[in-house]
Amino acid sequence: MKRSLWIGVGAVVLLIVGWLAYRQFSPSNRTVGSLIPPGAVLVLASDRLQDTVSAQVLRKEISLQQVPIFDEARQRLDRFLYATADTATVLGFVKGKNIRYSLHPVSRTTLEFIFYIPTSGADQAFLNRLTTPNPRQYRVLNHTFSGEKILDLVSRSGEAVGSFILMDGFLVGSISGILIENVAKRMHQSLKLPRTEPSFQVDADHWAGLSVRPEVLQSLFGSAGSLVRLFLPEELNLQFRPSVSRSHLIGYAADEIGARRDVASLFAGQTPRRIRSADLIPQTTATLYHIGISDAKRFGRTLSQLLSSASSDFLRERFSQIEPATEALYQALGADILLCHMESPAGLRQQVLVLNARDIRQLSTAYQQAAFQAGAKSPSLKTFLGHKILRLDVPELPASLFSSLFAGFPRSWVTQHGSSLIVANAEEAMQEYLRQVQRGAVWSADARQAELLNATLRPANFTAFARLNRLGSDRSQTLVTAGWPLAWQNLLDHPNATGARSAFANLENIAYQASYGNQNILSTLVLGRTTRRASQAVLNRVLLQKKVEFNAPLISAPVVAGSLSEGPVQFYAQNDAGQFVLVTPDGDKIVQDRTDGPIRSNTLPVDFLDNGRLQYLFMTDQTLYIADPGSSAQGRKEVQLQSIRLPAGMDPTFLTRPRGSQQRNWVALVAHQNGQVYALDRQNRAFFQIMAAAHKAPLLLPFQVIAMPAGMEVLAMQPDGTLNRWRENGQQLPHYPVRIESTSEDELEVKFAGPALQPVGRTDIQTITENGQLLRLNANGLIAHRTQLYRPVRSGVFRLFPDEDQTNWLLLRATDTEIAVLDQQGQRRFEVRALQSGGNNVRYHRLGAGVELISVKSGNFTTLYDLNGRIIGDRPIPSDFPVALQFDERSNELFILSGAKQAVQLFSIRLR
User: Fold this and answer.
1) What pTM, to 2 d.p., does this model score?
2) Which residues contact 369 (CB under 8 A, 6 or more apart)?
3) Residues 6+ apart with CB under 8 A from 433
4) Burial degree of 349 (CB within 10 A; 0-12, 13-18, 19+)
5) In this predicted structure, which of 99-103, 134-138, 369-373 has the lowest mean pLDDT?
6) How confident is residue 216, by pLDDT bands cut at 50, 70 and 90?
7) Could you tell me the CA-to-CA distances from 367 to 238, 341, 456, 465, 538 in Å, in that order?
8) Please, what is the angle between helix 313-331 and helix 296-308, to 10°?
9) What SS3 class is residue 677?
10) How far apart, in whole angstroms, are the C-alpha atoms of residue 912 and residue 534?
C-alpha cells in the first residue's frame, strides 16, 4: 500500500519537473489565451471592427462600430495605430486580421482594453514605423518588466499614447502600461498550465465573438438585473451575425447549465415560443420581461415548488397564505407572462403585468382569491375606457405568484382586456396603459417592432428586453445606466469629442433570450435599433406636412384628437363666427356646432361618458364643453358637442385630472377665483366645490394633484404666500395652511407668481418668490432652505415653470421682452431676448423618449429650443396661438400643429 502511494507521488513529481524543464528550455506556442492576464471581464474578437463604414450604410443598418463596447475597443486601438501612420497604411495593416481585445479592471472606477494583433513578416514595415515614429511628433521609450521589453509610445508634449510588446506572431498593446506589465508577467510565469479559451468563428457570416461574464449583462436591465442573472448561464460565449433586416446584431451561444438547473427545471417540458401578445405591449415600454409557457399545469407545479422554498422569508410566508388559490390560477394561464415597465417622464415606476389566459374568468377569479387570502379587504371599483378596474390593497402580489422578478407592486389595479388579465402597480399606470392600447399605440401596430418580435427575436423560454435611449436625454437620470457600476459608467456612458453619445445614440434595443435544455442553455443577445435614422439632408428642417384653410379667421388654437404621427390627423378648430369645425383625416371640414367663445383652457382627454372612448374636455369663459368623436349612422365622421355651464367666478384656463381620487365619478378639477377647487362629477354633470382656502384669493396655476394611498391631495399656493394642502375630503392637512413670511427688511411681504410643487417620491416642497428667493419647505410647510438667485438690472419675475403634464419643472425669469430658463437649482440654461412686448407665451414640453423642449411664442411666430438653448428647426413656426407638439420615437420626428390666420398647418422636424 505504502509502496504504490510513493510510486504515485514520485510520478507526479517527475511530471512537474518535466513540465518545468520543458517550459524552461522550450518556448511555448503562443496563443492569445496564453497572453491574456487573469481577471478579464470580457474578451472579444473580430476581423472587421477597424473597417470604415459609409454613412449611407450606417443609416440603413447596424454595424459593429455602433455598439458601445465594440465602439470603445475600436477607439482605443485607433488612437494607438493612427498616431504613427495614415489611414491607408493602418487599414492595410489590420485588414483581414482576427484581432482580439480583452477588458480588465485597472482600478475600482476604471476599465481598460488590451488588444492582440496577429503579425507576420509582411507587417515588418509597419512595425518599424511604429517603433521609429516621426521624432517631431512622437518618441518611443522602453523599459524592462519581468524580463520582457516594453515599449512606450509618447507624444512630444509628454502625453502617453500607449504601451506595447512586440513578440513573434503578435503585437500586444494597451493605453494602460499596468495592463501591459501584467501581460509580461503572464508570459514569464514559470508554471502556466494550458488555459481553455473560446474558439470564435470569424468569417463573412460571423462578424465577431464575445466571451463575457453574466454580471456584465445583468446591469443592462436596470433594477431587475440581479434577478435577470438567475436566467443567465455561468459563462456566455457569443458569436455575432447580422439579422435578416440588418437592423440588429444577433449573438448566439450554447453554454453548459452548470448551477442553473433550478431555473432549467422551471422550463422543463416547456416549448420555447415567440411573444404572441404584441397587441398588449404599449409603445412606451422601456423594459420588458417575458416568460413563455406551453404546459401551464407543469409550469405552475414547478413554480410552486420554487416559491415554497424561496430564499426570501416574505415570499415563503406569503406563498403559504395564497397557495390554495394558485393551482387554479396557474392552470388558467395562457402562453405569455409579460411584465412591461413603461417610460414615465416624471420618473414614476409604472409597471404592468399581462397574464395571457386560457380561461380568463378562472384566472381573474383565482387572482382575486389569492388577494383575499393575502389580506385584501373591501376592494374599490372604477371604470375607465370601458374597463372595470379593481383595486386590491395587497403589497407585492405579483411577486408572490411569479417570483421577485415581478416586484414593485405596492398594490394591484386589475382589469380584463380580451383574453388577458392586466395588473398595474398604480392607477395612473393602468390608465396610461389602457389609453395606449385603445388608440393602438402598441408593438403590433408598428411594422418595425412587429418585425423585431416576429423575425429578429427568437422563440425562447425567457426574454429580457430594454430600450436604452428612450429613458431620458440627460444620461444622469437614465434608469438603466444609473444602476451600472461606476467603472462601466466611466467606460461607456460619456460624450464623445463632439458632445454626442455616438454609440449610445445608435444602440436602442438590447435583449437577452434563453431556452433551457437538458445539458445546455441556448442564449441569444440582440443589439440594435428599430427607429429610423434621418438623412443629414432633412435633419432639423421644418417641413410642411399639411395645410387646411378656412373661410374665416381662427379664434383659438386647434384641438388635437389622437396622434399627429399616426396617419392623417384629425383635429377641431374654432373660427370667429363661433363655429366648432371637425377636420377629418380626409381633410373634410364639418361644422359640428357653435361655442359661446374661444377656448381658454388646455384640453383634457377623459372617458367622461363611460362609453369606452376618450372625450375631450375644454373650457370657454362661461362653459365647459365635452367633444365626443364618433361616426354617424351613415358612416360620416362627426363629433357630438355637449356643454356644462361654469359656476360664476371659475378660472377657465386650467383643467387637471383628480389623480388618486377615491371618487370614481370625479373626472376633472378646476380652480375658482376665490381660492376654491371644484370637481366635475360626470354622473350629475355638474361642478361641486370640494376645497376652499381660508381667505378669498386666486390659486396660482397650475395647482398640484398628488396621488396618495388614502386618496388624492391638492397643493396650491396663493399670491400672498399662503400655501394650502387639502385632503380629498376638503380638510387641510395638519399645520396647513401656512403663510410664508419675508425675512428681508426691504420687503414688507412675500409675493409669488407661480406654484409650489412637491418632487415625485419626496416629501419636501419647492417654490420661488417673485424676486428670486428659491425656497425648500419641509412636509409641514416650514422653510428648510432659502437661496437668493441672481437678479439682473431688469430683474423680471421668477416662477416655477412646470411642463404641460406636470411631471417636472424648471425655473423661469421673465420680463416683458426677455426670458431666462434656469434649472431647479437656479443655474441659467439659456436666455431669449428681444421678444415682442406683450403677448409672449412660454411653455415647457416633455414629449417622451428624452425629448424636452421649450416653445416661445412671440408675435405671430413660435420658436422651439432644447434645454441648452439650441434652436430646433431651421425657421420659426407661423402661429397666432400656442402650438401643439408630439414626438414620434419610431421615426424621430417632431410634429407641430399650428393655427395661423385662416389656416391650420401641420409641420414636422426630423431630429437626430
Assistant:
1) 0.81
2) 324, 325, 328
3) 282, 340, 342, 352, 422, 424
4) middle
5) 134-138
6) confident
7) 40, 21, 34, 26, 52
8) 170
9) strand
10) 7
